[in-house]
Amino acid sequence: MQYRRLGRSGLQVSELSLGSWVTYHNQVDVTAAREMMAAAFDAGVNFFDNAEVYAAGQSEVVMGEALKALKWPRLNYVVSTKFFWGLDREGQAANRKDTLNRKYLTQAIDGSLRRMGLDFIDLVFCHRPDPNTPVEETVWAMSDMITRGKALYWGTSEWSAQEIRAAWEIAERHHLHKPVMEQPQYNLFHRKRVEQEYARLYEDIGLGLTIWSPLASGLLTGKYRSGVPSDSRGALEGMGFLVKGLTHAEKNAAVAQLEAVAAELGCTLGQMAIAWAAHNPRVSTVITGASRISQLQENLGAVDVIPKLTPQVLARIDEIALPLAS
User: What pLDDT score does 229 carry?
Assistant: First the structure.
């Protein structure tokens, strides 16, 4: 496992990391989470990703209980969470969901710290942009969160380049803590934002990336070529919105061709897809997900595939996947 700086910060994160979206609480209990986190840690993973909204806060509870049981020195691991959606998804109360205002953010961090049983969270993300709150208010609130010692670094997730730059410039002008990382979706079929829209930000402001969905929610494992398996993510309650993309005929035809390339490299398609995302030098870490140890071990095997992605192999992959990328 190699370690990379998070953008221009001094923090180092493992090139592959472990996330909890969909799995923790829904598919993975505390015992399974502890076992997988321990296996990942033993393989060199030091970054574990989470969010307030995952399983309505229960994902943070599961990860927090696992960390408590593992008893790792706090310096040895990096934990994140994300704010915007809130926990009260069905309620009508103001300031409880879909916002990045100061009131919500100030109370949201306290809730996450309590659920995870931590004194501080290393990385805190604004999970989506909030068009109804002035960017200045959000920047001040996130900077204050760091000043108060409740978080160490802050960043964004799925913000546009223009929105990220605006936030950074406000922080620069007022000598506040700047956003240092973004968490965008990035995979063989979803790449333009990372490769084109953000291109100027890497050098201009030192933006780091903690990318999610390297397997395109499982499409890039090949498991959806014949429909939606009953034990897959696409079959889970509440995940129906993924099905159209997972059963996309042209992309699944491309997946079949990509499987042949992976076979020549002596790896699985999933490992090649994760390695492809990690091969991008702008990516600080690739967040992987797993519901069982065997999946985790396969994903972690991608570190051995990264050196095999020669310019010739990358050109073959692009020839297949790039025409279908957004």
Answer: 59
d(CA 139, CA 282): 24
Contact status, residue 155 vs residue 126, Cβ threshold 8 Å: yes
Of the candidates 42, 2, 38, 82, the residue with the CA atom closest to the CA atom of residue 286: 2
295 exposed, middle or buried (CB, 10 Å; 0-12, 13-18, 19+)?
Answer: middle
> Would you state the CATH architecture of domain 3-324?
Alpha-Beta Barrel (3.20)
Q: Which is the catalytic residue, given 24, 54, 153, 198?
A: 54
What is the pLDDT of the chain when averaged over all its residues?
A: 93
Tokens of 5: 């700086």
Taking only the tens place, the pLDDT of each residue in 204-256 is 999 999 999 999 989 999 877 655 655 555 545 555 556 566 777 899 999 99
Residue numbers of the chain with a pLDDT score lower than 70: 225-245
Could you write out the three-class secondary structure of 29-78?
CHHHHHHHHHHHHHCCCCEEECCCCHHHHHHHHHHHHHHHHHCCCHHHCE
Every domain of the chain and the residues it spans: 3-324
Catalytic: 153? no
